[in-house]
Every structure is written in structure tokens, then in C-alpha cells.
Amino acid sequence: KDRSDWKDAPGWYEAVAERMLKWRDDQKLSRHAPLHVLALIVERLRESGRTPPAGLVATVEKSISDAANDRVILADVMRAAGRGDEALAIERELLDAGRLHPDRMAAIVTHVREESGPEKALDLGESLTEYTLHPDLLEVLIQAAKQLGDEPRAARWEKTKAEASVAQRKLDGGEAKGSR
What we know:
This protein is 71% helix and 0% strand. The chain has 9 helices and no strands.
């Protein structure tokens, strides 16, 4: 939504966060109920140019469970609060435990490529393709192989990406009948 006509959008977000916490403290909401709303408020505050209050971030941090979805929300909150290293550590922990959603894997492999080089990124990314052929992950593998100058490896991942795309379209019902 366009918030350009709001007089004090960040102030409104902070007021909502305070109210949610009060309702939780007054036991009008369960302990975990405001988690998603508070996480969204942290992100909106960041988008509006305000640093999310440390107390709000700490509240989200204390409110999460060990469920993978909650941990991903916490990673997003940490990133929005300028704590990107902590966010990455959470995502890496989930990845290592086999609990990270495939949509997040390419970002981890990209970070490994930036920090440790393309070979380490390929090692990690290729191990992940045993259970996902997410297009973003495949693109990172292609770029890492090209960065190494390994054109056959890049070509193999480009072919895999194209084949996975065709398979996904078929699964989604995108292939016209009789076109086989």
C-alpha cells in the first residue's frame, strides 16, 4: 500500500506494536499471537527509515519458538534491525539442520560464494540439489561455475535449470495437451 499520504507511518507502527504487547501482557492475546504482526512492524519501520526499537526486536526474539517458520521470521527481523550476520547464522543453522525453506537457500549459497569463494558455494549448492532444483539456487550455481571458469559445469546447471523449468510448467498444468 502506498503510505506516502500518512503523516506519521512509523509512529503508527510503533503505536500498534505497543498496543499488541499490552494486549499480550494483559493476556488478551496468547504469547505467540503478536509475533507475525510485530515482525511485520519491524520490517515496515525499517522501510520507513526508522531503526526498529531494540526492545521490540528483543520481544520478537523472546517470543519465537524453535519452529523453522518462527526462526525464519526471526532472521527477517534481525536483518531488518541491521543484524544481518545474526540473520545469516539463523538461516545457516536451519540449512544445516535440513529445515530451511528452498526459497532461502540461494541467499545462503550466494553468501558462501561471497565469503568463501565459488568452489565452496558450488560444494554447498550442489549438495542441496539432491532435494531441490529451485531456480534461484540453480542460477547461483551457474554463476559460481562461470566465476570459476568451469563452462562445462555451468552448462550442466543451465541444462538442469531449463529441464526443471519445463518439469515445473508440466506440474503446474502449463503444457498444452497434445504438445508432447
